[in-house]
Write a structure and sequence with these properties.
- By secondary structure, this protein is of the alpha/beta class.
- It is built from six helices and nine strands, in the order αββααβαββββαβαβ.
- The longest helix has 13 residues, at 62-74.
- The protein is globular.
- The chain binds adenosine monophosphate.
- Residues 22-25, 59, 62, 122-131, 159, 179 line the site of adenosine monophosphate.
Length: 179
Amino acid sequence: MTFDQDLKATIRTIPDYPKPGIMFRDITTLLADARAFRRAVDELVHPWAGNKIDKVAGIEARGFILGGAVAHQLSAGFVPIRKKGKLPHTTVRIAYSLEYGLDEMEMHVDAIHPGERVILVDDLIATGGTAEGAVKLLRQIGANVVAACFIVDLPELGGAAKLRAMDVPVRTLMAFEGH
Ligand code: AMP
């Protein structure tokens, strides 16, 4: 088995969740598999091993689990990007598009210093609306977004292309067809 098939096989697909027509790519089965979890984190950080990364920003909630491990591996700090109303200190906030309507995400205004080199982490990129909002938020407080990393890409939804068009290098470990 190739690396890609091996890791891909640890992801569970739940059809029609959370609504009909969506194939939910459930990474909890990858996280629960010690070898797969380590491999996924090692592969995500591979291009930046030996580079200076100041902070890893993780998107709530699965991006926290992966982002924490990635930050540890790179000896970088970790910064949470959260849904609105959860962070206690002064925040910056941005609205971002979901499939239906808008939501808002926040980070602490002092979480990143201007010019710091930051990697953004989430489990999956679909339309890219969430990650695009996160990149804008990071840039708003002066971060140098060096890359965005995801385990799963849904290329037909165009999210990775959207980030690349914003000059953000994108790293994904596998792709699934469809939604
Ligand atoms: P998007 O903003 O469209 O790129 O959606 C990305 C966010 O929604 C990520 O935080 C994912 O965890 C979640 N997501 C979107 N589609 C799926 C899917 N098919 N399976 C699992 N999670 C998904």
